Amino acid sequence: MGWGRFLSGQAGRWAACGIDLVYPPRCPICHGETGGHLDRSGPAAALHPEPSPWAAAVCGTCVRELSADVGRCLRCGEAGGPADGCRLCPRRPHDWRHIAVLSSYAGGLREAVLRAKRPAGDEVSAALASLIVRKHAAAIGSWGVGRVVPVPMHWWRRSIRGTSAAGELSKRIATRLGLPWGRPLVRHRATRMQNELPIEDRPRNVQGAFRVRRRLDGEHILLVDDVVTTGATLSECCRALLAAGAATVDVAVVARADRSSADA
Ligand SMILES: [Zn+2]
Ligand SMILES: [Zn+2]
User: To the nearest whole percent, how much of the chain has pLDDT over 70?
Assistant: First the structure.
């Protein structure tokens, strides 16, 4: 190797070290320094294929804490149920086929979900999307999903917020899974926030609020949202997608408000 090439290689390495010293890598969830010493053989290692540097920086502690969850029913999302349908499923008719949940809407995950909704929350969305895919890639793969779509936000609310958490999450999940992303659903009626309403009023609040831009004949859809509580919004979206010809709709959400945290 010539001296010139050696020196330019060293300079690159020194420059990289310098940047790390000035801007030490920080975890987008807890803002703790990862110190550039991520455990590449541990859970965080699985996050590295993400082309975005954000997700690569999730620290091992956050990966463990946010992904820690009880076993869940993959049909209704109930905590502690068997994966293939629990005793509560018949009492909660749902229009989706399966639901993948990262964890319960509480503690650090609740804070991360709220941060993802803010205008600068895209890096948090990217991290959360990575964690969902890391946890459920095998299940989602077995569902035969062909397209990832977000639960839409009304354009007016999005213009105020400047970001759509479900939109960002769904894009990142699609990239991770190597699937096409699309936005066939539109929220054509501004609805009141579901969490401002009593549970019994929520289905009526979103009834007829969504329409589909084009036919989806035979498509297998993965519908993405950040939080599920009663499932009224997701069900209404599923009905619109199925009415437009979708063959199946499966769901992926970051957090489920379990009974103990349902008032959150
Ligand atoms: Zn962290
Ligand atoms: Zn169930």
Answer: 80
Q: Which residues surround ligand 1, an ion (CB under 5 A)?
A: 27, 29-30, 32, 59, 62
CA of 92, nearest ligand number: 2
Quote the CA–CA distance of 151 and 164 in Å, as a whole number.
Answer: 9
What residue ranges in the chain does DSSP mark as E strands?
99-104, 147-150, 185-187, 210-212, 220-228, 248-256
- DSSP H helical ranges for 148-201: 155-161, 165-177
Position 136: which residue type? H
Using alpha carbons only, give the angle 197, 248, 104 rounded to the nearest 5 degrees: 45
CA of 88 to the centre of ligand 2 (A): 5
Ligand nearest to C-alpha 79: 2
The residues facing 227 across adjacent strands are 255
Q: Which of 234, 233, 249 is nearest to 97 (CA)?
A: 249
| CA 222 remoteness from chain centre | 11
Whats the size of the chain, residue-wise? 264
Segment 38-86, tens digit of pLDDT: 444 444 444 444 444 444 578 888 888 888 888 999 999 999 888 889 9
d(CA 119, CA 78): 31
